[in-house]
C-alpha cells in the first residue's frame, strides 16, 4: 500500500513569539509526506522552482517517499510567510509568492496512477479534479480545502467533495462551506454532498470525526512549548491517512485510531520549525505518544454517582 499526495511544496518564512525561520522547507505535501511516511510509503506530486533545495528533501526519500512526481520548473518556488501570536490557532498570512505554483498542472507519473489512497491537499479544486481523472481505481480519497477556494471556486469544490470519501477541514472552513454555524449541522450538510466521513480540525484543541451515525473526538496533545504551528493540519492528515492506508481497514475502530495517529503526528510537527521534528522522529516516539493519548483519554464508566440514576 502507499498514499498519493498532491499539494504545495514550499519555502516558508515563519514568525512566532519564540523565534523565526526564513526560507525553510514546507508546503502541505511535504508536511503530509513527512508524517504519513512514519506509517506507509508516500508518492508526492507537486512543483518547485529551480531555486528549491531538493537536498533538504533527501530525508523523505530515506523514508520511502517517492518524489518523482515533483516537477522542477525554471523559475521561483512557491513561498509563504505567516506569523503567529500567542494563540497558535491565530495565524496571519503576511504574503504568498506563487512563483511556478501559479502554472501548476499536476502530472502523475504512470506508476502513481494505481494509487489506492489519495490525499488531495489544499490546491485549486479544478486541479484536484484533474488528479482524480488521472488515478485509475482509488479506494479512499480524502480532500482538504481552504476559505480561498470555498469563496473563489465553490462549484468545482462541490464537485470534488461529491467524489471523495472524507473531507478534512478546520472548523471555520466547515461552517463557511455549509453556511451553518452549528458544527454538527455543518458536518451533516457536508456529508449530504457526498463524503461519508468529515474530519474537522480544531488546532490545539484536537479534531472531531463525523461518521454516518457517530461522532468521535480526539484532543490535541498537551505540549508545553509549541514552537511553530505551521503544518500541524497537514501532519494530522498524514498521520490519519497513513494509519488507514497501513491498516487497510475501514472499520469504525480504525477510523478512531486514525484520529489519534493524526493528532499525535500533528503534535510532533509543532515542536520545531519546518519539518525538523518530524524529520528526527523515531517509531518508538510515535508509539509512546499513542500510548499517552490512550492514557489521557481513557476512563472507566461509573453509573452509580448520579442520584436516583
Ligand atoms: P497547515 O499549517 O497545515 O495549514 O499548512 C501550512 C503549509 O501550507 C505551509 O507550509 C505553507 O507553505 C502552505 N500554504 C500556505 N498557503 C498556501 C496556499 N495558498 N496554497 C497551498 N499551500 C499553502
What attributes does this structure have?
11 helices; binds adenosine monophosphate; UDP-N-acetylmuramoyl-L-alanine:D-glutamate ligase; nine-stranded mixed β-sheet; globular; single chain; 13 strands; 309 residues; alpha/beta; four-stranded mixed β-sheet
Task: Give structural notes.
By secondary structure, this protein is of the alpha/beta class. The chain has a single domain (3-297), classed as Ribokinase (UDP-N-acetylmuramoyl-L-alanine:D-glutamate ligase). Helices cover 35% and strands 25% of the residues. The chain has helices spanning 28-36, 58-61, 125-134, 147-152, 154-161, 171-178, 183-192, 232-247, 252-269, 276-279, 283-297, and strands at 3-6, 10-16, 19-26, 42-49, 65-73, 78-84, 91-97, 117-120, 140-144, 166-170, 197-201, 207-210, 215-218. A nine-stranded mixed β-sheet has the order 5-4-1-8-9-10-11-12-13, with helices on both faces. Strands 3-2-6-7 form a four-stranded mixed β-sheet. The radius of gyration is 19 Å and the shape is globular. The protein starts with a strand and ends in a 12-residue tail after the last helix. The relative contact order is 0.15. The mean pLDDT is 96. Adenosine monophosphate binds next to strand 2, helix 1 and helix 8.
